[in-house]
């Protein structure tokens, strides 16, 4: 794994972890509907509820991985249809620019990437009714199906990291980038235990988000600087 790919993975994980406030805003309703949608005998027992929440979130992360593989495959196709050296440099520059934009978004300096949420509204309008058909939830299979559909919710952070996955030029690496992002979102969206509480408190601190934003911007600038060498 190259240093640059390591930086992309770390960027995806940090955006997932410290973008928790945004994730709770976008996905909080779905988390709530998952809880309310559980059969009453399950919903009344936190310990019985936990496997359903975990299963739904695991399926969501798997959905991210599948989407990342598809977009990484798109990047691989780009490497095939153009001059390899030119395509590699273009994808490299694209990754650097996306990391800079993600850093600006995470640090709260520029919310341009929020506009990407409009891209998924058409798809989400078709998928959202499927979740209603799966309620009430009586089985882990139903929870997994809802979680997988949840992966396609129109979210600026999800779509921005997904677009970055194109720059890996590999289905495997594209999946890895999205899995790293998904794992970063787990503490906030599972909402359980001390880890979740600590992650939420960290994500709410502006200075933490700004330091992470500057780090990611640095990754992007480093990628672009290497192109000049």
TrEMBL record:
Domain Urease accessory protein UreH-like transmembrane span(s) in chain numbering: 11-221
Superkingdom of origin: Bacteria
Tagged with keyword Transmembrane helix: yes
Bilayer-spanning residue ranges: 12-40, 61-79, 91-113, 134-167, 179-200, 207-225
InterPro entries on file: UreH-like_TM_dom (IPR039447)
One Pfam assignment: DsbD_2
Keyword annotations from UniProtKB, A to Z: Membrane, Transmembrane, Transmembrane helix
Entry annotated with the keyword Calcium: no
PANTHER family xref list: HEAVY METAL TRANSPORTER, HEAVY METAL TRANSPORTER-RELATED
Protein name: Urease accessory protein UreH-like transmembrane domain-containing protein
Biological source species: Thiobaca trueperi
